[in-house]
Amino acid sequence: MIQLIRNILAGEGSLWVAWINHYVIKNKDFYDLSESPTNSWGINKLLKLRTDARPILDAGISKTKKIWEEIREKHNKVPWHKVVWFPLHIPKASVITWMAILDRLPTRARLSRMGIPTDGLCVFCNEEIETRDHLFADCNFAKTLWNSILQLTQLQKTHMSWEVRLDWSCRKWKGKSLISTVMKLAWNTYIYLIWEERNRRIFQNRTRDVDQLLKIIKEFVRIQLFGRNINRLDDVNASLCNYWGID
Ligand SMILES: [Zn+2]
User: Residue 93 has what pLDDT?
Assistant: First the structure.
């Protein structure tokens, strides 16, 4: 979208850019325009992005990769970055998926608000409206998967809303202890997999159950910790290795 802004300012790129310049911006300054309910969602979205876009474009950054790095730098400063940006040695595309998930997740509830047709229901239970909070915390599918993770970690199962859990995770999993590492890895994989599973169900009509997802999470945690020097004389560590199958 920042590339689009660049094209609009340069007045080049496509018929759409020409259209925006002619009908929306007219003779005004792009940076002075205000958001308006009469604009399309896309245009208001571009206008919202101006504060982020300006320093990047003013600095003459034009490669998408570089723009992405600039944005990522900035987003790293938000409080949840310690949990969310825990190094996941998975392909780059997944990191981009992350941003989408945690920043502005296109849930069905959001799509409905944007006027995009959807029944708005969660694909896991088909009962509740698919909001971020429902998908990742309140839905029975998410709850069962999350509780299984807590069980493997011997942590107490108390239901937490999305916000509370995020806050709890940020405060609790700070250090380098084995349990912190396991929980950060598990949490990352959990969010990633729920979103991936939701998309598989919607777009590919393929379904995995909680046990299959739990198996993937365990495998991921195990691989990430492979070869790590763990003090197994510590009771907590010993039981973690046992439950998670860490060699
Ligand atoms: Zn649900």
Answer: 38
Q: At residue 220, does pLDDT exceed 70?
A: yes
Neighbours of 111 (CB within 10 A): 14
Instruction: For residues 223-236, give the mean pLDDT.
Output: 86
CB 49 within 8 A of CB 5: yes
What are phi and psi for residue 121, nearest 5 degrees? -85, 150
- Cα(209) to ligand 1 centroid in Å equals 13
How much is the mean pLDDT over the chain? Answer: 80
* Cα 136 to averaged position of ligand 1 atoms, centre (Å): 9
Name 147's Cβ contacts closer than 8 Å, sequence gap at least 6: 157
pLDDT at 145 over 90: yes
Q: How far is the CA of 62 from the centre of ligand 1 (A)?
A: 41
> 229 CA to middle of ligand 1, Å?
39
How far is ligand 1, taken at its centre, from the CA of residue 121, in Å? 8
Tell me, in angstroms, the distance from the centre of ligand 1 to residue 196's CA.
Answer: 15
Contacts of 51 (CB under 8 A, 6+ apart): none
Mean per-residue pLDDT for 77-83? 47
Q: Which of 15-19, 46-50, 121-125, 150-154 has the lowest mean pLDDT?
A: 15-19
143-147 contacts at long range (C-beta below 8 A, 24 or more positions apart): 144/210, 145/190, 145/194, 145/210, 145/213, 145/214, 145/217, 146/190
